[in-house]
Design a protein that fits this description.
The protein is α+β, with helices and mostly antiparallel strands and 638 residues long. It has a 4-stranded antiparallel β-sheet with strand order 16-5-18-17, with helices on both faces. Strands 12-7-14-13 form a 4-stranded antiparallel β-sheet, with helices on both faces.
C-alpha cells in the first residue's frame, strides 16, 4: 500500500533520506533559510538569507560524509575550495525550489507525510513500521519527531516540484527507435598501443635537468603544514559509564514511565483492496464500490476471504497471501483503514467497504494481541542506561560550563582544567589541513587547529563534536610547510622526467602513425615496421570490457567511416601512453529485434534522461530570474 517512497527515491528526496539514515549529524532545516537571526550571511536568494552558520554546518556535514566515504583518498580526490562552492550552489538551488513550491501552492498533507515516513526502511520493525524504532533512529541523530517531521515535509515538498517536472517527460516511438539504434550500435575497429615503457629507459637525464625540474616544480615537492594537538574530551557517553546505578531509582523510573513499557495492541488482518486512482470520476468510483460490495456479500454468504483476495485484491503486497497483512499496530496504516481495523469487535468479523486514499478495502480480523505491561526485569538494562544518561547529561552541562570558563581563564594550558574537572589530557599525532585520525578527522577540529589563535599558542574555544560531546584543543607541535630536499625526492624527480620524455615521444609516434594511416599506408605494415601489435575488434558494443580503457570512448566518438574506408584518431590513454585507432565499420542497433520489455525499459530510460534535462533547465531558469547575492568575503574567510 505504501509504495510512494520507492517511487520518489531519486533526486533531492533520495539525497535527504540517504543522509538521514547513513551519516550521523545535526540535521539542517530548510526553515533556516527563512527568517533573519542577525548573523552574517554567505548568500541571499531573492531576499532569503543563507546564513554563515547554516552554510558552515552544511559544509562540515558534506566534508565529514566524503571523508567517511573516501577515507585516505579524500585529500587526493577532494578540493576543499571547490567543495565549498558546490555546497553553496546546492543550498541556493534548494532555496529556489522551496520558493518555487511555495509560489505554486504545493503542500504536503499529514496523511501523505505519515505514509512516506511509514515507508522508510530505517523505521521498520518485524511487523512493518515501528514507532519505537522511529524514535530510536531519530534520537541517534539528535532529533525527535517534532523536529524531524517539519523538515521531512519540506524535503517532500522539494521532491514534489522535481517529480512534477521530471516525471512528466516522455519519449515518442520514433525517439525510442533512434535511441535503440544508437545505444545498440556496434563498431569494427583496430588499434595499436604505444606504451611509455618503450621510451622511458632512453630518457636523457642528467644532473642539470634534475635540478631544473626540481626548481620549476617545487610545489610538487612540498611537505604540508602539520600540527599535533593536546586536547580535553568531555563526552557524556564516557561520563555515563562512571555513574553508579540505584536499584530503587530504577524502579521509581519504571513506575514514572509505565506507559512507555506497555506494548501497543496488535491485530492480524486480511484485506481485499479495490483500487481507485487519484482523480477518478464518479463512474469509476461507483464501479469500484459495487465490486467491493459484491465481494463483501459473497464473503458473508460463506465464500473464502483468502480465495477472493487472491483473485480480486489489487494490493500487490498481500494479494498473493490471501490478503494477509500480518499483525499491525495503531498508526501503521492509512487513517481510514486503521480506524476500521481497530474498531472490529470479534475475531472473524468482516467490515467494509472502507474508503481510503487507495480505494475500497474489505477487512477481516484474524487475531488480536492485547497490549500488556513489559516486566521490570526485561527493561532494567534499558532503564539503567537511561538513568545513567540523564545523570551524565546533568553533570555534562555543569562540566561544560566550567570547562569553557577554565580554558578561557587559563588560555596557555589545559592542565588546570583537566585537574579540576577530573579529565585526562589526550594527544593526537601529526596531521595536515586535510585531517587525520580520531578527533583530527573532524572538520571543526581541523579548522580550529590551523586557526591563528591556536597556532599562536592559545586554547581553542569549546568545539562540539556531536550531541553532548565537547573538546578543547591546544597546539602540541607545529611543522610549517617546507620544501622537501632534492636528495629526498630525487627518485620521484627522475620518474617524472622519464614519464615526461616518454609521453612526448609516444605522442610524436602516434601523430606520425596517424598521418601515415590517413595517407593510405596499411596498418599491418606500420605495425611490423615499428614493432607494435595490432588488435582488431569486431562488433564491439559501448560496454565492451575487453578493450584498453580510453580506446572505446574514442572509437564511439568518431563519425561513421565512408563505405570501404576508415576513420582514424589517436588518443592519450588514462594509464599513460597513446593509442592509434581506426574505425572500419558501424552497424546500428535494430529496433525490430528488441523485445517489448526491453523496449519499455529503453523508453523509461530515455524519458528519465529527458526529465532530468528538463528539471535542470527549470533550475537554470529559476537561477536566471533570481536575485542571488553571494558574500564572497564571508565565504572565502571560512
Amino acid at each position: 500500500m505504501l509504495q510512494t517512497i520507492r517511487d520518489r527515491a531519486t533526486g533531492w528526496f533520495a539525497w535527504f533520506v540517504v543522509i538521514l539514515i547513513s551519516v550521523p549529524f545535526a540535521l539542517w532545516g530548510i526553515n533556516q533559510y527563512f527568517g533573519h537571526s542577525g548573523e552574517a550571511d554567505v548568500a541571499k536568494v531573492n531576499g532569503t538569507e543563507i546564513t554563515l552558520q547554516a552554510f558552515q554546518q552544511r559544509y562540515e556535514q558534506e566534508q565529514a560524509r566524503l571523508q567517511q566515504q573516501l577515507g585516505p583518498r579524500y585529500a587526493e580526490l577532494v578540493n576543499d575550495k571547490t567543495l565549498r562552492k558546490q555546497v553553496l550552489q546546492r543550498m541556493i538551488d534548494e532555496t529556489l525550489l522551496v520558493q518555487a513550491a511555495a509560489k505554486a501552492g504545493f503542500r504536503i498533507g499529514d496523511q501523505l507525510l505519515a505514509a512516506e515516513i511509514h515507508g522508510i526502511p530505517a523505521f521498520q520493525g518485524k511487523n512493518g513500521f515501528s514507532t519505537q524504532r522511529y524514535q530510536q533512529v531519530l534520537s541517534s541523530q539528535g532529533m525527535t519527531p517534532f523536529t524531524f517531521e517539519p523538515r521531512f515535509r519540506r524535503a517532500l515538498l522539494i521532491a514534489q516540484v522535481e517529480n512534477g517536472i521530471s516525471g512528466s517527460a516522455f519519449a515518442t516511438p520514433l525517439e525510442v527507435d533512434q535511441f535503440i539504434r544508437l545505444v545498440g550500435q556496434k563498431r569494427d575497429f583496430f588499434y595499436l598501443t604505444i606504451p611509455l615503457a618503450r621510451f622511458e629507459a632512453k630518457a636523457p637525464i642528467d644532473e642539470a635537468k634534475i635540478r631544473a625540474y626540481y626548481d620549476a616544480h617545487k610545489d610538487r615537492f612540498m611537505r604540508p603544514e602539520e600540527v599535533a594537538l593536546n586536547y580535553l574530551d568531555l563526552d557524556v557517553a564516557k561520563l555515563a559509564r562512571k555513574i553508579p546505578v540505584d536499584e530503587q531509582a530504577l524502579k521509581n523510573l519504571y513506575q514514572q514511565e509505565a506507559q512507555r513499557f506497555v506494548t501497543p495492541p496488535e491485530r492480524r488482518v486480511r484485506q481485499i483492496l479495490i483500487r481507485v486512482s487519484k482523480g477518478a470520476d464518479a463512474k469509476a468510483v461507483a464501479k469500484a464500490r459495487a465490486l467491493a460490495e459484491k465481494l463483501l456479500g459473497e464473503i458473508r454468504h460463506g465464500a473464502s476471504f483468502a480465495k477472493l483476495a487472491k483473485k480480486y485484491s489489487q494490493d500487490p503486497g498481500s494479494a498473493a497471501k490471501g490478503g494477509d497483512l500480518g499483525f499491525i499496530t495503531p498508526g501503521t496504516t492509512v487513517p481510514a483503514f486503521d480506524k476500521a481495523a481497530f474498531a472490529i469487535k470479534k475475531v472473524g468479523e468482516v467490515v467494509g467497504p472502507v474508503r481510503s486514499s487507495f480505494g475500497f478495502h474489505i477487512i477481516q480480523l484474524e487475531a488480536v494481541r492485547p497490549s500488556h505491561a513489559i516486566p521490570f526485569a526485561r527493561v532494567k538494562d534499558e532503564l539503567a542506561a537511561q538513568y545513567r544518561r540523564r545523570k551524565a547529561e546533568d553533570r555534562y552541562y555543569d562540566l561544560a560550563n566550567r570547562l569553557t570558563n577554565l580554558t578561557y581563564e587559563h588560555p596557555d594550558t589545559l592542565e588546570i582544567a583537566a585537574t579540576k574537572l577530573g579529565l585526562e589530557v589526550l594527544h593526537t599525532g601529526l596531521f595536515s589541513r586535510q585531517g587525520g585520525v580520531g578527533i583530527a578527522s573532524n572538520p571543526k577540529v581541523v579548522h580550529a587547529a590551523f586557526s591563528s589563535d591556536v597556532l599562536e599558542g592559545n586554547n581553542s574555544d569549546p568545539i562540539e563534536l556531536g550531541q553532548n560531546r565537547t573538546v578543547v584543543i591546544r597546539l602540541r607541535e607545529h611543522k610549517p610547510a617546507a620544501l622537501r630536499p632534492l636528495a629526498e625526492v630525487r627518485k620521484q624527480v627522475e620518474e617524472d622526467l622519464r614519464r615526461q620524455y616518454a609521453t612526448e615521444q609516444a605522442r610524436k609516434m602516434a601523430q606520425m602513425l596517424l598521418a601515415k594511416l590517413r595517407a593510405g599506408e596499411p596498418v599491418a605494415g606500420l605495425a611490423k615496421a615499428f614493432g607494435l601489435k595490432v588488435k582488431e575488434v569486431r562488433a564491439a558494443t559501448r560496454r565492451d570490457t575487453g578493450v584498453t580503457p580510453g580506446v572505446l570512448d574514442a572509437v564511439f566518438n568518431l563519425a561513421p567511416p565512408p563505405k570501404g574506408g576508415a576513420r582514424y584518431a589517436s588518443v592519450a590513454l588514462p594509464a599513460g601512453g597513446y593509442a592509434v585507432l581506426g574505425v572500419t565499420g558501424v552497424t546500428d542497433g535494430d529496433p525490430a529485434t528488441v523485445a517489448e520489455a526491453q523496449r519499455s525499459g529503453e523508453r523509461r530510460a530515455l524519458a528519465r534522461m529527458y526529465g532530468q534535462s528538463e528539471f535542470a533547465a527549470f533550475l537554470s531558469d529559476l537561477r536566471r530570474h533570481a536575485k542571488i547575492e553571494i558574500e564572497r568575503q564571508q565565504l572565502d574567510e571560512q
